[in-house]
Amino acid sequence: MTEPSETERPTGITYAAAGVDVEAGDRAVELMKESVRRATRPEVLGGLGGFAGMFDASALATYRRPVLATSTDGVGTKVAIAQALDRHDTIGFDLVGMVVDDIVVCGAEALFMTDYIACGKVVPERIAAIVSGVAAACAQARVALVGGETAEHPGLLGPDEYDVAGAATGVVEYDDVLGPQRVRAGDVVLGLASSGLHSNGYSLVRRVVDHAGWALDRHVDEFGRTLGEELLEPTRVYAADLLDLVRLEGVDVHALSHVTGGGLAANLARVLPDSVHARLDRASWTPPPVFSTVASLGGVPRADLERTLNMGVGFVAVLPAASVDAASAHLEARGIRTWVMGEVHPAAEADAAPGEVVRGAKGVDGGSVELVGDHPRA
C-alpha cells in the first residue's frame, strides 16, 4: 500500500477548527481588565489571570466567632432578553444582585465574588461588556471581583448564546446573625421597592409576551419605554445599603428576606420562626405597571403571579416598630422607597386567616405568611 505524500496528507483538526478560539478568550480578558480593577478591596492579593483569586483573611482574627456565608446563583432566562437586544452591560447587575443580596439576608458582609460565563462563541467585546456590568455591580456592593472563567462551548450553545453564574463569600459575627431566632410577634414588616421584575419569572414573562405577539421594540405607554427596555431593567443591588442599615445606631433589624423565585410570601416565610404569622396588606402598595401588564396579557391568575414574580417588592425587613422610622429614613435617603406592609402576629392567628396561607418554602420549616386585600389601582 502506497503511503500518501506530505502534500496529500489531510490537515489535522485544531482546537480552533473545533470552534474554540483561545486568542479571542485572551482578548476578552484584556478588554475586561480595567473594569475588574475597579471592583476590588484592600484585602485582594494578586491580579486578574491567576489560577485562583486570593483574599487576605487576616481581618477575620478580629471576630470573636466569624461565620462565613456563601451563595451561588445565575439570572435564568433573562439572558435571552439581553441576547435578543444585543445589550450585555446590564446583566451583570442581575447576577451580582441574585448572589450578593442573598448573603446580606443573614447580616453578613459579602467580601469577594467570582463569575462564570459559558458561551457558544467568545466575542471579546460581548464578554467584556458582561463582565463590566458584574464589576460595576460589585463595586456598588463593595464586593471584590477576584476572578472568573469564560468557557466556550461550540455545539452546545449557539454562537450568540451564553449563560452566566456567580458565587460569593461573606462573613458575619455569630452574635449578629439575622434570622428567625430574632423575630417576635409585634414586629413590623417593611417593604423595599424593586426596580422591576429583577431576575425571576422570565420563563413566564417570555411565554406571555410570545403568546401576545408583542415585539421587544414595541413602545408601551405604561412603561414610558419599549417592552425590551422594561424587561432588561437591571436588578437593584441592595447589599451595601442594607449592610449599613443593619449597622445603623438605633435600628434593630431582626430579619431580612430577598424576594426572588417563589415570590413575596414564600421568601418571607423562610425567615420567620414557626411561632409567628405575618399578615401583609396588598393595599399598602401599587406594583409597577409591568406586573399588571403580564397578568392581563397572559390571563395569569393572581396566585400564580404572586408565586412567580416579586410584584414590586425587592426586599423585606422585619424589625420592631420603634426602628421603622429610622430604617425608612435611611433607605429612602439611599433612593430605596419603603412602606409598612404589615405586622407579625402569633402563629395561632394563621388558623383564622381568611386567605391563602404560605408556610415555609424551599425546605425551610418556617413561619406562615398571608396576603390580604387588593392593590390600589395605578
TrEMBL record:
Q: What is its EC number?
A: 6.3.3.1
Task: Tell me the keywords, alphabetical order.
Answer: ATP-binding, Cytoplasm, Ligase, Nucleotide-binding, Purine biosynthesis
Task: Identify the residues that the record assigns to the PurM-like C-terminal domain, covering every copy.
Answer: 184-346
Among the GO biological process terms of this entry, one is: 'de novo' IMP biosynthetic process
Q: Domain named PurM-like N-terminal: which ranges?
A: 64-172
Give the reaction(s) catalysed.
Answer: 2-formamido-N(1)-(5-O-phospho-beta-D-ribosyl)acetamidine + ATP = 5-amino-1-(5-phospho-beta-D-ribosyl)imidazole + ADP + phosphate + H(+)
Q: Name one GO molecular function term.
A: ATP binding
List, alphabetically, the PANTHER family matched. Answer: TRIFUNCTIONAL PURINE BIOSYNTHETIC PROTEIN ADENOSINE-3 (PTHR10520:SF12), TRIFUNCTIONAL PURINE BIOSYNTHETIC PROTEIN ADENOSINE-3-RELATED (PTHR10520)
Protein name per UniProt = Phosphoribosylformylglycinamidine cyclo-ligase
